[in-house]
Amino acid sequence: MIESAANMVSASMGEVPRSGAVIAIDGPAGSGKSTAARRVALALGLHYLDTGAMYRALTWWLQEQKVDLTDTGAIVARIAEPKIEVGTDPRHPRIDVDGQDVAEPIRTRRVSNSVSTVAVIPQVRALLIAMQRDIIASAAASGAGIVAEGRDIGTVVAPDAAVKVYLTANEDVRAQRRSAELGDPAASVAAVQQDQARRDERDAAQLAAAADAIRIDTSALSLDEVVGRVVAMAQSRAVPRG
Ligand code: DC
Predict the structure, then answer these.
(1) Does 18 fall in a domain?
(2) Which residues form the domain of 73?
(3) How confident is the model over 150-186, as pLDDT tens digits?
(4) Secondary structure of the chain in the HEC alphabet?
């Protein structure tokens, strides 16, 4: 079972997206979407949901349980067991499995290299998408709104999102970012690039830009520039605070 601990976050000054607005940010690994999405949420005083962390948390748990990840039936039989809790405060994004903070272990190369195998299973997607929709609906209902990021937010999870962004970056930039993010000397840019190509292939089924998404190529942009563009897009559809 996945539960949302959707903490209220205070809105910043100025204009904010319409009450309860949903901002969907999709894109491939290394496109910079996680950091950008969290920063957008902080800037606009919205909740933040990292859907990739949910697929990672489930994969981590399955590995801990020594479930054979080549056996889809064995995976499906166990997916309802772990209690995964997601915190949506962008100042302290949290992901717990059965009460254990797994924010670090879900970022290891071991999880990264297996997560797309798990994420492609329809029953896994149905379970996590239902939970993501609940989290998004409760943030929207609270009036705070939410920035949700992943691969299929604008297309499947929240097709009615007020703002949809699709971030891309060229392969070299993506691998460099990922390697720096991992902070692991063993994760050379070349090795990361190889892992990335494999994951891209498996993630391709989920990854699609919504027809109404705004594409931003982040290859030559700083993080501040990416955040600035998304915030401006959200504010252009905003209502004054008051
Ligand atoms: O964004 P990330 O690298 O943390 O995502 C981890 C994996 O989860 C990645 O292989 C794609 C998958 N994923 C997905 O299928 N759908 C999402 N909405 C988010 C992530």
Answers:
(1) yes
(2) 2-234
(3) 999 999 999 999 999 999 988 888 888 877 776 665 6
(4) CEEEECCCCCCCCCCEECCCCEEEEECCCCCCHHHHHHHHHHHHCCEEEEHHHHHHHHHHHHHHCCCCCCCHHHHHHHCCCCCEEEECCCCCCEEEECCEECCCHHHCHHHHCCHHHHHCCHHHHHHHHHHHHHHHHHHHHCCCCEEEEECCHHHHHCCCCCEEEEEECCHHHHHHHHHHHHCCCCCCHHHHHHHHHHHHHHHCCCCCCCCCCEEEECCCCCHHHHHHHHHHHHHHCEECCC
Least confident of 48-62, 100-114, 185-199: 185-199
Q: Does the C-beta of 227 come closer than 6 Å to ligand 1? A: no
Could you tell me the distance, in angstroms and rounded to a whole number, from the CA of residue 30 to the centre of ligand 1?
11
CATH number at residue 39: 3.40.50.300
In a domain, 240, yes or no: no
Residue 116 alpha carbon to ligand 1 centre in Å? 7
Determine, yes or no, domain membership for 95: yes
Q: How would residue 213 be classed by pLDDT, with cut points 50, 70 and 90?
A: very high
Q: Name the domain count of the chain.
A: 1
- Ligand 1 centroid to Cα of residue 14, in Å, is 33
